[in-house]
Structures are given as C-alpha cells and as structure tokens.
Amino acid sequence: MRVALHEHLTGKKIFFAVIAPICMMVFSSLYTLVDGVFMASFVGSDAFAGNNLVWPFFAILASPGFMFGSGGAALVGKYLGQKREEKANRAFSFLLLAVLVTGVVLGLVGFFAMPFYARKMALLSDHPTQAMVDYGITYGRILSIGMPAFMLQLFFQSFFSTAEKPYTGFLFTVAAGLANIGLDALFMGLFRWEVEGAATATVIGYAVAGFGPILYFLLSKKTPIRLGKAEFDGRILAKSASNGISELISNVSSSILAICYNVQLLRYIGPVGVSAYGIILYFAYTFNAVFIGYAIGVSPFVAYQFGAQNKKELRHILKRSLLLIGIIGAAMFLLSEFAGPYLSIAFASGNEELASLSSYATRIYSFVFLFCGFSMFGSAFFTALNNGLVSGIIAVVRALVLEMLAIFLLPLLLSVDGIWSASVFAEIGAAIMTGVLLLTERKKYGY
Predict the structure, then answer these.
(1) Eight-class DSSP state of 367
(2) Is the model's pLDDT at 154 over the cut of 80?
(3) How far from 310 is each of 76, 263, 402, 418, 427, CA to CA, in Å?
(4) Nearest residue to 447 via CA among 358, 320, 345
(5) Which of 3, 7, 2, 1 is nearest to 308 (CA)?
(6) What does pTM read for this prediction?
C-alpha cells in the first residue's frame, strides 16, 4: 500500500509507511550478520575478531552517506511540501554526485590507512593479535574499494521513502542481501577464499543496492523525485549537511564508541573480548535497524507536514511514534534476553569461552533496547524538522558524552561488567534528555 506524503497517518498507514524501511534496514543488518557467521564458521575466531576490529573505522569513513541521505531527504521533502518539485529534483541529483565523489575520496583514505589503524589497535593487548590484524587489514582494504557503493546505499535508503517508494528500496536491499549471502557461501564455502571471499561478496552486495537505484531514479516517471540535471548549489550542500549532522554524529560516534569498547576489551580480556563484543553488535545493529527504519519511514511525512505547516499532524505523528517505540523496545528486550545465548553459541563455533562470555554480556546489554529508540527517533524527528542543531545535541550528548564517560569510568568500579553495562546507563540519560528537548521545543513547532 502506497502512502502519500500529504495523507493523515492512521495506525494502519504508519505500518505501511514504515514496514518497508524497517525490513530494508533489518535485512541489511542480517546479511552483515550472516557475513559474520560464515567467517566464524569457515575461517575462525581470529577472522571474526579482525572483522570486528576494522569495521568501526570503515563505518566512520562511510558516515557522510547517512548525513547526505537523511539531511538531503529532509530538505527535498520540505521542497515537495512547498510544491517546488523542480527544486527538489535538482537538489536530489546534485547530492547524488556529491556522495559519489565523497565515496571515492574516502575509499582511498580507508585503503591506505587501514593497516596503520589495525596495527595501532593491536598494540593495546598483551595477548597474541597478529592473525586478527592480518585478517582485519585484508577485510578492511577490500571493503574500502567498495566505499562509493556503500555510501550510495546509505544515501538511497532515505530517499526511497521520500519518493513514496519504500518497497522498491526494500527490494533493492533484498537483492543486495541475497547476492551477499549467496556469494558468501560460494566464495567461502566452495572456493575457500576466507576473508577475501567475505569482503568481495559484501562489496558486490553494496554495488547492487548502491548503483542499481541510480538507474531506477533515472528511468522512473512515476515518483515525486527523479534524477536529472544537477546544478551545483553550495547552499543545498550546506543545508543537507546541517540537517543530517546528527546522523553523521550518531554514526561516527557509534563507530568511535565501538573502537573505545575494543580498546577496553583488549586491555581487560584480549581478542576474545573483541569477538564477544562483535556478537553483541550484531544484536544491536539488527534491533537498532528497526528504530532506524521506523525513523526513515516516518521522517519524510514529518518533513512534508513541517513544510506544509500542518501542526496537528505533526503532533499526531509524534505521539503515535513514541507509543510504538516504547512497545517495540520492550519486545526487543525480551527477545534479546531469551535469544541471546543461542545466537552466542552459533557465532562461537565451538569456542566455549567465547560462547559463555558473549551470552553473559548480551543479557546485560539487552536493557539498552528499552531506552535507545526514544533518543534515536528524537534525533531523526528534529532532523526532519530541519533543526540540525537540536538533533546534533541529542546525538553528541548520547554518544560522545554519556557513553564515552561510561565506557572509561564504569570499569573502574565494576571491572568488565562496567564495559557491558556502559550503554545502558548512557541510553537512560539520553532518553531523559530527548524528552526534555521535545518539551522545550514544542511551542516553536506546535506539535
């Protein structure tokens, strides 16, 4: 069911507006999860640890794709609400070129900087790390070659909802995921290419979801936005960047935090701690993908109604969203508590120490899901309102202040348990802060 941006979002229409973006984001996380399963099964725990060691650095470099995707979609959605279709199309086309060029540059940075990063991280541990580092460098350098495609995939995830075609975006993600999973089985299971096979399969999946939509938006004549003539406009670039700065901060912060977790775990436990944290991240990526997908699906409606100055509908969307996020978060907590040990065993591939550690850590970390959805939605909500400042404040305080402090201070009191519980304390504080900001900004926007 297609839901037009100008429509009133009933419960049924919210479902149809968000289900495809949610499935798209969850499926993206799942095929990354399958990557890890194949790597742990066919290569071993050192390869799995190497993957988790370098992924945060790669994700930091790719973060502008989220920034221009979410921030640009908010701006284009506002133009559509103001009935400026030609302006919306030119902005969309220009931002696509900007992302492509940025992806090429950052891919080169990643390719040449990956060995330096991996080796510096390895120096933090007293345990043997050479195998982990070698696998991580190989995996990270191949992923860097696919950086332009990955950034385009991130960019298009937001614009498919703005184009009122979330299901088409989901189909591209499914195609990419199936390609990745199938090629994982072929390259690693049959050809025995180890991490080279995993990374190559991932890059091909990125290409399907990154370059395929370009053809779609060039040829489509039935979408509110289309690719065509691009006109350089520094104001569009700046406004999209300022709108999406919170998404950039959130993704960079998440990656920096993952690096900090790895630093602490290498100090307290060693490579097995990095592997255990990698298992937790697969849970977190998959469950957080639901919140991200919800925000992607709802944000174009918020941006459109903001442009149309329909305050009653903004208020309705906000109330419904907060209720749904609370219900979803409670369900995720229960699922994580019960399913966590089984997933840990699957990833451990017979390593009893890793299975026991990750199972224990997951049950502590799962409390995060009760709270994190509120701050994630709040940040996206203000991005859609074209208020990058407030959105950025939520993102910065949530990650770079609260969680960063928790990662380094709590272990001094609770040892390793302080590492696993750091996110829980940070997300409680971030949820409270988001609620305060929603209340203080209510008069300005009328929601």
Answers:
(1) G
(2) yes
(3) 17, 48, 35, 46, 31
(4) 320
(5) 7
(6) 0.77
